[in-house]
Amino acid sequence: EPKLSGDFATLMGWADKVRRLKVRANAETPLDADTAKKFGAEGIGLCRTEHMFFDPARIGAVRQMIMSESEGGRRDALAKLLPFQRDDFSELFRIMAGLPVTIRLLDPPLHEFLPHKEEELAEVAQSLGADLATMQRRAADLSEANPMLGHRGCRLGVTYPEIYEMQARAIFEAAVAIAKETGKAPVPEIMIPLVATRRELELTRAQVEKVAKEVFAEAGQEIEYLVGTMIELPRACLTADAIAGTADFFSFGTNDLTQTTFGLSRDDAGKFLPYYVEKGILPKDPFVSIDPEGVGALVQIAKDKGRSVKPELKLGICGEHGGDPASIQFCEQTGLDYVSCSPYRVPVARLAAAQAALAGGSDRTA
Ligand code: PEP
Ligand code: MG
Fold first, then answer.
1. Residue 227 in contact with residue 138, Cβ under 8 Å?
2. pTM above the 0.80 mark?
3. Is 318 tagged catalytic?
4. What is the pLDDT of residue 366?
5. Is the Cβ atom of 50 under 6 angstroms away from ligand 1?
6. Which atom of ligand 1 is nearest to the CA of 321?
7. Terminal Cα-to-Cα distance of the chain (whole angstroms)
8. What is the DSSP string of 124-145?
9. Is 183 left (phi over 0), alpha (psi -120 to 50) or beta?
C-alpha cells in the first residue's frame, strides 16, 4: 500500500509550499492512478490509451479494426471497443475526482497490433469474413521498415478518423455520465500525439469537436474540455506558433523528441550510449536528462513561439524526463506549468520541483 507518512509527509508538505511546478503522473490503469494520487499527483498528465488495447478481451477487436480494409469493418470493430473505453475513462475520472486527466488518443506501435501468428490471422480473417491469403497480404502491406517513424500517432487518426471519434465519444460519454451522477464534471484534456504540422491538429481537433457536439446534444448536457497536443517532433517545436493557434495546451514528449533530435532509436539506446557517457562524449544519457543544447533548446523555442501567440498556453512535459531532477530544474527555469512522471516518481518530482523553485530562475510566477 503506497502511502506517505511521518517525517516524509512533513517534508513533502514543505516541498509543496515552495514549489511552483505542478506534478502529475503518467497512468492508464486504475491501480497506477490510485498510486499516483496517494503519492500526491495533482492529475494525470499522460494516459497512454494504446496500452488499454492489449487487454485479451479486446485485442481481437483491435486487430479487426487495423486489418479491415473498409471503413464499415473498422466501425464494427470500434463499436465493440467503445464500451471498454467508456469504462476505462469513467474509472480514471472517478479516481482522480475532479483533478485534470490528460487522455492521449491512440499512438500505437502499429506492428504490435498486427496479427503475426497463424491462429491470430485465422481469427481476424473469420471476424472480417475474409480469407487467410487476403489477411496475410494486408498484414504485409501494413508492416513497416521503421514503425517508430511510420504510421503512428495522429497519422493514424488522420487516415482513419473513426478511431479518434470512437475514443472521443468514450471520453465525453463517460464525463457526461459522471457529471450527471455527481453534479461535478471532470474536465478531460484530450491530447493528440506525434503532431508535426498544424493541419494534423486542425483535422483531429475537428473530429473531437464534432463528437463533443453530438454527445452533448444526445445527453442534453455540455461539459468543458481542452484539446492539446504532444510536442515531440522537432518540426512541431519549430512551428509551435502555428500549432498553438489550434492547441489549448502543449505537453513535451521528450522520449520521442530525444529520439528524433539525436536521430537515435529510443529502443536501441542501450547498445552504445553507455560507452558515449562513460567516455564523456555525451555528459549524460539524453533519454534520462534533458540535453539543454538539443532537446532543451527545442523546448525553449516551442515555449517562446507557442506563448508568443497564446500567452496563457498551458505547458507540461510527460516524457521520462518529467521524473528526473535535473530535467525538472530545466522545466522550472523554462517556465513550464507541470511535469508528469511515473507514479512512483511523484514524491521525487515534488521534492525536485521545490528544490528547483528555491534555486530560482523561472520567468513565470505561480
Ligand atoms: C514521449 O514520446 O515522450 C511520450 C511521452 O510518449 P511515448 O513515450 O508514449 O511515445
Ligand atoms: Mg511519444
1. no
2. yes
3. yes
4. 43
5. no
6. 3
7. 32
8. HHHHHT--HHHHHHHHHHH--S
9. left
